[in-house]
Specification:
6 copies of one chain form a homohexamer. By secondary structure, chain A is α/β, with parallel strands linked by helices. The first copy, chain A, has a single domain, classed as Ureohydrolase domain (Arginase, Chain A, 3-Layer(aba) Sandwich), CATH 3.40.800.10. In chain A, 33% of the residues lie in helices and 16% in strands. Chain A has 10 helices and 10 strands. In chain A, the strands form 2 sheets. In chain A, strands 4-1-5-10-9-6-7-8 form an 8-stranded parallel beta sheet, with helices on both faces. The first copy, chain A, has a two-stranded antiparallel ribbon with strand order 2-3. The longest helix of chain A has 20 residues. Chain A is globular. Chains in contact: A-B, A-C, A-E, A-F, B-C, B-D, B-E, C-D, C-F, D-E, D-F, E-F. Chains A and B meet through helix 7 of A and strand 2, helix 9 and helix 10 of B.
Chain lengths: 315, 315, 315, 315, 315, 315
């Protein structure tokens, strides 16, 4: 990893935070604690596309990240414990096949015990991730920060879409809804029963009003109680943040979290046993010129890596 | 109205939230509860122009809005109760004539009992709106969320300008200042007496500091007390929001509301008897590429429509 | 159609050039000479997405177009002869189903004798168009201005993609390659035989160097000779223009036509018997803030409509 | 004027090319050969506003201009011969009054023999300029490079608008149409007779096709013949350039001049006796981030100043 | 200073808030209370450049500022008490020489008792400022709002860089670390000891978490206690604000202050004896099109001027 | 190198055209014909910075480039003959030291016989390149396409700046001015003698007017005659292109080449014995959102690689 005291951190081919690049096919063999994996896929988005360039932009915005996390007091990036495994080769225009490609690509990594951290791509990429996770760990507990529950039945007949991915994952038994929780929900619906149908799947939904009413520690306590001891998958759809903090996303929703609130929620999860992470729905064409959405996503990913460092004794 | 489960909501000629389009001349006859009306006028703006494209951009940003309001528990858009009546044909370069065109265009709608919701345009468009409202209802109570009181005497000799419109409306007897309130005021002035002159008109001014100090329910109580039982006009100048949430506006002012705070203030007004709404001062050229100001304005309009649904038993 | 001498042409819900909006389902019954039809689809694009917003942006950029064409001396838009039929309801994420939706939507229009002018969308939308055309007219002659031949076999296993659409159309017998011509070809290839394979289909390919070497009249003569008397489909992939003139597109290619050169080529086609048109690959997120690509596409569409006016005696 | 070899040319309060700033009221007294004058007015524009920020942007884009013109071999800016007189205080929302303000502000300058070079502002600002010129010199010959003839009767009843300004000037006898010429005309019209009505005023109109067909020297010969020996006013509406070269303008029109073609036409005018210049219709909000339209306008202004240097023996 | 009631405030060559422009070399002689000074330098920035255009953009965004501060109840700009002294001529590519140029340029102003308010430029410009201040007042107390402590030893061997400037100032004895405080610190570090090394210099560091936990009055009390009676220098690195409020900066850091929070902290400092101010790190290329970072910086500068008005009895 | 028929070319960590990445330190050992090398340095730029992000943006814009060059009929990228060697670690703020770093980094590559193709960075990076080239080959012939001769003596006392680099290279004996030629020169100067001083160095200068007057083959003939048989260095400052084709650059100059003209000039150089290339002055912050300048630079680099393939028998 580059040191800005020797050369500018914006020097070199872009990897996440300047980490070493190890191709995904070999990443499971190198004994890393965690691996960054891009999934440049945005076929399954219902409004603004562009998330296919999310991995590129998040890597570009990550160049200033440094190893030491002053709040947790851990070394997040150090000593080869984290690597950038590049992108999964997916199939634009074909969400089903792409989900299979993601699952196949991540399976060896999950089996090796390394924690994959996926940079999306639209939220549909989570299906492949959860297949790989469930293959290694059985049904996982999902902790999702998202403005939308993503539990619709289908979109115009398409069953795998960014707004249906959680329902698909429940149907496939990839996550245990009784141990799962989606927080940050807001925005208009089609009908009164929409959220009830999501709850009927067994999921716990936390509206944004509830999420903001209590401190991060209360959220973390709720997560710990809900997820119990089992393996946890933590996802962040960047649209959980307010459009002011994350304008560059596919379906922005007003009334969301500030960047500080989002980061604080993640920091509160220290100690939860996480087996996988993702941050999705960064759409760079809508993020220019400041690229603050990509910057926020890079920091979200950094906080996720910090959680693996805590778990793994990175301090 | 289009259903994203059947076709993408971004399909088709843009109307607000995909509502049916009924020309303004016929809108009063169709028995709608509320009608969206654009006023693409920006001659009377003192800094950045562009609000003429506000109606186009707000419609474009409204495509994802769905009918069911989960917090109020009402159907906001359903059953033909709301329509998009297109734009008023105004006269660029002539604020006086344009205000007459707006008044004439809205009068039948007001007379029919439908609630007009105007998408501005700069704030000067409110004069025509208030003339139409006062013609139907007598002087109305104004509840205005705005960074500026807009009660200047004139600008470079021009008497109808976006910063003079409230004074003109008071002078014409269109609104009852004793039942009116402007909240969110901030920013530097010309002289110590500037706000006193506004208060001398009888208006109540609520500085942003006061507005933020108390919960939305307290603001709503103040509104209810102030407006009494009479007909109320609710206006939002989008610059009441912070520049981070609403960069695309004519005269942005730092230290404003977050998108969530603005939405919560509107939700707190449930039950107030509103006869007209507007959301003004969205300037798309300064909003690109994320168009978050237009998105916020579309959500402001949606919350306004929800208030009409509550009043009208839309749940 | 609005007259800027009475109201600003940017007033009202956006239709192409302010034309009347008649829903596609009814458009074939109104006896129009030509109909604008949007196809907001961009699943099948190999680099930058965003063309789903092409129809919206082209309509927005078309507001200044007026009826009289001073070079041809015809009334292009007048007397109800042209209408805007809105958008086809397509299926994002499913190019095959979308092509069927496009074909079904356009078939009645083609049967009625009206000339459809499609605003894309990515180039894959042409397959549905050509199916509708071939259904009405038998195999058509294709005159395509495009930087790329779009005759690849497949992309990552996907057979309907914006770079394969011409091959698919030939395979389905929708166009007669012996009467077809693609002009403006440039850019690097995979292998020496790539263009030969396209020519092996029977297509005539005109590299950009050849296209620019001779005057528009020479191009038109070549088109007339090639297409013979049969029905002709004229397509413009906006990437035939130089990135300086059309930055907002999916796969820009340096060394293209200026806006004037492109317009002149279209004007030279006066008298050719055209049964259908499209202009595709406008990607608005990459076009801001000037939106000059959408403006160029709106003018391309205007020139196409002018060709129908000449054929139909619109002068 | 700053010298980049001593300090960066982007240092200091922005004046045109770093020229000394002398307030307009005193500018006529200092004996300058030419004076830059901004007119930040855009009320009278029929599509995209923003030209009020034209003077600011053109000054910002002019910082790299240096004094020596290598083609003409003259010192353009040197020895206090040129100054920046700031902006005219105009009245937004009131084109008539603003035209009077412009005329009054420029009259002393014209009387003093200095050549005003106005940075617009929309094209309506030319009326005030021509009044000042005619007051000093009698009716002038107009040489206008513009995509539009700007000879409409009115817009929505408004008689002074950017598209009516030339008709108004003819009606007021400010310019001699028999010695005037407008070149670069293109784009759709309302009716066949539109251009004939302009010609009926006595103006010579040169369509863009004719302008490009012959070399700059032929254009200059035509100008010399047409304008005879009388005082000439040279105007450039930046939309005479192609949208690729000038995206930041109010009513862009495809098929225009490249930046080099526009500059060459101006250089060819060496020796013509010019008493006033303007460059109008630069709209910065549509020009970001490259600001190439403002850069082109700054260079147009530079070429105009060079013409005064040649006339004045600046070499 | 211009009055928007007479002419638009966007009229004229841009100075800060329309203040009179007095060249820096003469500014010390005119008896002003405070002087705006731009330092257009960005050589010493570690990620995104562009701050060289900070002074231009902040001036451009300041046009709407008016003289009366309604919260403090003072006349901020009036009566010639404040002027715009233009920019310091610095040397791009040479931070050392530039710091000398800044110090030399400001020294007479500091000696005259006027308060300089510098518009950066990157943070390295503070070294020259502090040299001038210390020359006039001896070591000053620093109150810095900044996301970063800027106390690194060097960058790639460069000792004067925007991240080293505070260390250099301490080493040179320009500021008294025991009376200094840096607040708003956040973001990842290289190693656990990084902040300890800054504290070892004697500086007090206030992490963002602490800063937000207590009200502005508590911060102000801490400042008053820490700075004691001595002369104080107040600096704002605009990256102390959140990227949503200040996207246009060199090294944005998530989790920062809202615009209102930043303004409130400055207002709380009323009565502190300040001898110099700066606001740095505004990078306009990353701020377009809304230019909200420049707007925030203009307001920060306005609040700073208000503090001088209070001290000077401007009310 | 990735094949878009198997996976999207936008998949994976960005290298030039998807080439394999071999660290610069090892690149000389792998026997490549040519190597891409980024130099992310922009300290020495006189107006707009940002070229430090040139290498990142050019790599990002290069993803669609394919191996087969249809005009030359050669395989440009194939068989491991070309690699991406990443970036040189330079020192922002220190042009002298950076030039040494560039020279040291490239020397082994030059010695190995591989052709370095540098992606700038501002033009000052050429000094290090030419030192490395001269070290391996003796003084080289320079063929430079540039709007500016870059032969100034100094800028504000700085002797290594982007506008002085050619003078420095001549003074150091790195290039043979008698065999060198700079073409595309235009724009205002300080004084009549400026270009004469450049010519006095022995350089041949070709103004843009001359360059455009004759066909590419004539330019190539002039190059061949001028450079004789010796080793040639070919540089492209992207500002040789017109601002419409290359808005994202540090010092844009109107009246430049179109993208097609620039590409054609490079193609005409087939057979010239080139030992090094660079393409400099791409500034991405001024290029958004279309990034057409980076796209043009990527194609310029591609044409340069094609020249090495011709020389090396790549066909």
């Amino acid at each position: 990893m580059s040191d800005a005291r020797e050369a500018p951190r914006y020097t070199g081919v872009r990897t996440f935070a300047g980490l070493d690049h190890v191709a995904l096919a070999r990443a499971n063999a190198v004994g890393a604690r965690a691996a960054i994996v891009g999934v440049p896929f945005d076929t399954a988005t219902s409004w603004r596309p562009g998330a296919r360039f999310g991995p590129e932009a998040i890597r570009g915005a990550s160049v200033l990240l440094r190893g030491w996390h002053p709040v947790h007091g851990v070394d997040v990036l150090g000593s080869g414990a984290v690597l950038d495994a590049g992108d999964v080769a997916i199939t634009p225009g074909n969400a089903q096949r792409s989900s299979e490609q993601v699952a196949a690509a991540l399976a060896p990594l999950c089996a090796s015990g390394a924690v994959p951290l996926v940079l999306g791509g639209d939220h549909s990429v989570a299906l492949g991730e959860l297949r790989a996770q469930a293959g290694a760990h059985g049904p996982v507990a999902l902790v999702l920060l998202d403005a939308h529950a993503d539990t619709w039945e289908d979109y115009y007949g398409e069953r795998l879409f960014h707004g249906t991915v959680i329902r698909r994952a429940v149907e496939e038994g990839l996550l245990d809804p009784r141990r799962s929780l989606i927080a940050g929900i807001r925005g208009p619906l089609y009908a009164a029963e929409d959220l009830e149908q999501a709850r009927a799947l067994g999921l716990e939904l936390v509206p944004i009003e509830e999420l903001r009413r209590s401190p991060p520690s209360a959220f973390a306590a709720r997560v710990r109680e809900r997820t119990a001891a089992g393996p946890v998958f933590v996802g962040v759809d960047i649209d959980v943040a307010d459009p002011s903090a994350a304008p560059g996303t596919g379906t922005p929703e007003v009334g969301g979290l500030s960047s500080g609130e989002l980061i604080d929620l993640l920091r509160a999860l220290a100690g939860v046993r996480v087996v996988g992470f993702d941050v999705v729905e960064v759409s760079p064409p809508y993020d220019a010129p400041g690229q603050i959405t990509a910057l926020l996503a890079a920091n979200v990913a950094y906080e996720m890596l910090a959680l693996t460092a805590i778990a793994g004794g990175g301090g």
